[in-house]
Amino acid sequence: MAKVLLIEDEWQLGQIVKDSLEMRGFEMLYASDGKEGLDLYQQHKPDVVVLDIMMPNMDGFTVTTEIRKQDKVTPIIFLTAKSQTADVVKGFELGGNDYLKKPFSMDELIVRIKALLQRFNDQPAAQEASGSDVIQIGQYHFNYTKQTLTRNHETAFLSHREAEILRRLSENLNQVIERKSILLDLWGDDSFFNARSMDVFITKLRRYLKDDPRVQIVNIRGVGYKLIF
């Protein structure tokens, strides 16, 4: 039984989501503001966090930042109003994994929760199969588990999504990875908005890798990306 932490300041919506997920077998924790939600996270260590962006006492961005300081793994899903969709890119950069626009259907929320749980449950096996947590990329050492990129004793700390993209690129060195496959794997769909979000992450990865001119993330127009060095 997966344990879901829901942080939502709209009490009526929160109760509907809580009751619906409980009826489908999830163990639910509910908080009506960010500070209370962070306290529940610290106490109970849920399997998934579902949270609104705009909340009293502590907003969803701050909650996510605090969680990611100690936990790079637990999936986080943002709930956002249509007028806040531009903020979702910021949420991904802070370590969020998915988002849903309000109003949303319970079936869609459940599908996304299950997909994230499956994806994260599969990660230990994938890491074991790779044989090592550390991958050398030119002058850099990429530690997927710790989500770090180190060069000359200088370390950059990656967000979860940055680490996921870089892992896929590095495991397919000098090979093209289709843009669509990354989007479907990490975002759940290949919509225009998600594609723009991925472009932001690719740009950030290029900045991390810029001190070794041999290392490049090449855009294969209309197809995808390729890591070369």
Care to describe what's here?
β11 and β12 (224-228) form a beta hairpin. This protein is α/β, with parallel strands linked by helices. α2 runs parallel beside α3 and α6 (160-171) crosses α8. The chain has eight helices and twelve strands. It has helices at residues 11-23, 34-44, 60-70, 87-94, 106-130, 160-171, 179-186, 192-208; strands at residues 3-7, 27-31, 48-52, 76-80, 98-101, 134-137, 140-143, 148-151, 154-157, 177-178, 216-220, 224-228. Strands 2-1-3-4-5 form a five-stranded parallel β-sheet, sandwiched between helices. A four-stranded antiparallel β-sheet has the order 6-7-8-9, with helices on one face. The protein has a three-stranded antiparallel β-sheet with strand order 10-12-11. The N and C termini lie far apart (44 Å). The model is unreliable at 124-131 (pLDDT under 50).
Q: What order do the helices and strands come in, and which of them pair?
A:
Blueprint: E1 3-7, H1 11-23, E2 27-31, H2 34-44, E3 48-52, H3 60-70, E4 76-80, H4 87-94, E5 98-101, H5 106-130, E6 134-137, E7 140-143, E8 148-151, E9 154-157, H6 160-171, E10 177-178, H7 179-186, H8 192-208, E11 216-220, E12 224-228
Parallel strand pairs: 1-2, 1-3, 3-4, 4-5
Antiparallel strand pairs: 6-7, 7-8, 8-9, 10-12, 11-12
Mean pLDDT equals 86
Oligomerization state: single chain
How many helical elements? 8
Into which percentage range does the β-strand content fall? 15-25%
H/E element order: EHEHEHEHEHEEEEHEHHEE
Poorly predicted segments: 124-131
What gap, in angstroms, lies between the N and C termini?
Answer: 44 Å
Largest sheet: 5 strands, parallel
Name the structural class: alpha/beta
State the share of residues found in helices, binned by percent.
Answer: 40-55%
Radius of gyration: 18 Å
For the secondary structure, the number of strands is 12
Neighbour order of strands in the largest sheet: 2-1-3-4-5
Shape: globular
